[in-house]
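Z., the sequence and structure:
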Amino acid sequence: MTAKTTYKTIKELSEGLYREKGSKFIAYAAPYSSEAQAKELLESWRKAHHQARHVCYAYRFGSDGIIFRSNDDGEPSNSAGIPILGQLQSFEITDVLVGVVRYFGGTKLGVGGLVQAYKTAARDAIENATIIEKEVQKQIRLSFPMAQMPFVMHALKQLNMEIISRDFSDVCEIQLALPIASAENLLSELSTLPSVEIVHI
């Protein structure tokens, strides 16, 4: 089975809205790159809507979307987080957090009504987003003596990649992220150089 080389996510923050029997459901869909960033986004939504009853959410993370979580935030079990997560799966997007803020309108909607409301609000936010395709990135760390610097840098300059960190002391170290296809070409070229150590992260 061939490994995936691309995945779908969203470009920027988007919003959605659903109203039912006086209750208002405001949805946010946001791209994110770490659990810490997801927590910051949720906290900012809670602060912006401090009078709201609930801020329910779900997220998928990683190019294959196998890291995921949902939270009902006090709503009946599986009436909010799971329907939101279902929309992320339906649109096949990952590295995305969707939060839905509920302002209670005085009339209970029942579990079925809540499922429909959270699902619809989440879908509206995702439909208002720009869905983009990204290349799956691979991270590697290179260690090499200073004498190999010109050859290593020559190999790197030919690639579309992001340098995450570098340390040019006695033993040079570079940590970088690049598309999987580019990684294979780079590793093939660097394997011909003596004293270059390659660590897959």
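The mean pLDDT is 91. Helices lie at 35-48, 81-90, 110-127, 149-157, 180-190.

Let me know what you think.
H.
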